[in-house]
Amino acid sequence: MRLKNARRTTLFATLGLAAALTLTACGGGDDDTSGDTPSGAPSSSASAGATETGASDSGSSGGSDAGATATGSATGSATGTGAGAGSDGKTSICRTDELEVNAADNTTDKKEGVVTVQLKNAGGRDCSINGYAGVDLKAADGSTLSVERNGEPVYPAVLKNGDSAAFNITFPYNNSGGSGVRLTDILVTPPNETKYVRVAWPAGTLPVTDGSSSGKLQIGPATRVG
What we know:
single chain, six-stranded mixed beta sheet
């Protein structure tokens, strides 16, 4: 009986030691697994960082595919913005000081007179002209006659250095036989400008109608010549 009991004790001790060793091995495995999680997290963070770097720095050669996509999008957007701000094809307006202004009488009949005002680009650069000029006529008696727009459509144009635009001033021809209203000057303000140029009136007089001829004076829009 004592021998049997001794064997049982030895067996139980052996089983206990094996169980202890098994538990120790399991405990070590769990510790290693919990240690993998933090080391895996920085790895994921590093990938996210590479993606962000790729999105904000087009010169980065690393990063994920998402980073490369973001880089392409950002580069395209920046290029479009730059083009819109500095290379949009727009040309600044023709300034008064860049234009040579002349007027000529182009009347062909004795019903309606025509004076053509020419605006020549002499500024040494391309400039745009768009719309109606402002025109006032100065009379010999010191009065000023305003000229109305005739309502014709406007056609914007770019004038290279040396190119010209022109518009017509139409006025009633003086068939009365009297001296009429004698004009001396045209005050021309180019489209979209505020400074005017004074040029001599090249044509004849206006008929006297109720002390004013302004209702029959009209101008057309400035249009590129040639």
